From TrEMBL:
Protein name as catalogued: RNA 2'-phosphotransferase
Keywords: NAD, Transferase
Protein family (similarity comment): Belongs to the KptA/TPT1 family.
PANTHER family named among the record's database cross-references: PUTATIVE PHOSPHOTRANSFERASE, TRNA 2'-PHOSPHOTRANSFERASE 1
Length: 121
C-alpha cells in the first residue's frame, strides 16, 4: 500500500514530519476554494490564508469539499474563493496535492473573496 513503511505512514502533505516536504509547482485551476471558521475571517482579511500549523495552505477544487474541510473547525464554516489564476500570474506558487487538493505556501488576501457562510443550523 502506498505511503506505508513497516510501522510508519508517510504524510503526503507534511503534517507529521519536521522538515518541509518539497512539492513541484504547477498551474492551478483558475478558481480554488477554502473553507474556514467564522473566527478566522478577520485574520484572513488582514493577513491572507496562512498554513498555520501545517506546511502548506490547503485549497479545494470544489465548494463542497472546501465546506466539508471548514466543518472540521466550525459547524457553520465560511467559504472563500481564491483567484488562483491571478495569484499564480502574480508569483504565488501552487502545488498539486492530488486531483482535488492544491497547496500553496500562503495566499494573500488580495486574491480572496468571501463567498458565503454555511446556511445549516
Amino acid at each position: 500500500m502506498e505511503g506505508l513503511d513497516a510501522s510508519q505512514i508517510r504524510a503526503l502533505y507534511g503534517h507529521s514530519v519536521p522538515q518541509k516536504i518539497v512539492k513541484t509547482t504547477g498551474i492551478p485551476p483558475s478558481i480554488l476554494y477554502h473553507g474556514t471558521s467564522r473566527d478566522s475571517i478577520k485574520r484572513i482579511i488582514a493577513e491572507g490564508i496562512l498554513p498555520m500549523g501545517r506546511q502548506y495552505v490547503h485549497l479545494s477544487v470544489d465548494r463542497e469539499m472546501a465546506m466539508q474541510v471548514g466543518k472540521r473547525k466550525d459547524r457553520k464554516p465560511v467559504l472563500l474563493q481564491v483567484n488562483a489564476e491571478k495569484a499564480s500570474i502574480e508569483g504565488i506558487a501552487f502545488y498539486q496535492g492530488n486531483h482535488a487538493v492544491w497547496l500553496a505556501d500562503r495566499v494573500p488576501s488580495t486574491f480572496i473573496t468571501l463567498l458565503e457562510e454555511s446556511v445549516e443550523p
